[in-house]
Amino acid sequence: MFLNSANDHWRLIINDISEHLDSLRCLVGNIVEQHPYGEGGLETRRGTKHFSPGTKVYCLPAQWGDGYERVKVIGRHRGSKDFVTMVIPSAHITNWRAKVVYNPEVIRRLRTATDEDWLPIWRSKEEVEKYVASLIQWEQRRDTQDGTT
Q1: When comparing pLDDT for 66 and 117, which is higher?
Q2: In DSSP terms, which residues pair with 58 in a beta bridge?
Q3: Which partner from 3, 44, 60, 149 sits 20 to 30 angstroms from 135, CA to CA?
Q4: Is residue 119 part of a domain?
Q5: What average pLDDT does range 7-14 have in this prediction?
Q6: How far, in whole angstroms, is CA 34 from its chain's centroid?
Q7: Cα 81 from Cα 144, distance rounded (Å)
Q8: Between the CA atoms of 48, 130, 65 and 49, what dihedral angle is there, to the nearest 10 degrees?
Q9: Does a structural domain hold residue 73?
């Protein structure tokens, strides 16, 4: 009986530690400083309705077959500063990069979001870096077409 209790005790400790050491690879970006808004894009808005400019957002893999035009992201809301999960246009994200995520709340939200949609989280560093490379190319083409470069 004593051994079972000791084993159970250590199992709990190991599980607790592993929760804190958990990490995931993820595609990360920042909310753009400003973007065109309104009819014909005549107005300029700073950040988005829900995210301040520069806010770090953790991006999930493509889900809808739209060429990653819209992205499900996790980031700190501009009002409450709590983490939120929502879908935003990828054009409102810049500074794409591959990062390892350690924040337990972000990891929990990534896992919850992918469980809901039956999607895997990023499988490897290479997969994330491939997305980063294609998003940077897409961003450069878009900026060239818009005449912003």
Answers
A1: 66
A2: 28, 74
A3: 44
A4: yes
A5: 58
A6: 19
A7: 34
A8: 0
A9: yes
**Is the full-model pTM beyond 0.70?**
yes
| Those residues with Cβ within 8 angstroms of residue 36's Cβ, 6 or more apart along the chain or in another chain | 42, 43, 44, 45
Please tell me the distance from the alpha carbon of residue 107 to that of residue 22, in angstroms, as a whole number. 8
Residue 17 has pLDDT above 50, yes or no: no
Total residue length of the chain: 149
d(CA 25, CA 124): 7
Range of the domain at 33: 23-146
In the chain, the number of structural domains is: 1
Does 104 have pLDDT greater than 80?
A: yes
Identify the CA nearest to 49 among candidates 78, 80, 91: 78
CA distances from 130 to 27, 91, 127 (A): 10, 18, 5
Residue 98, domain member (yes or no):
yes
Is 58 inside any structural domain?
yes
SS3 assignment, position 52 = coil
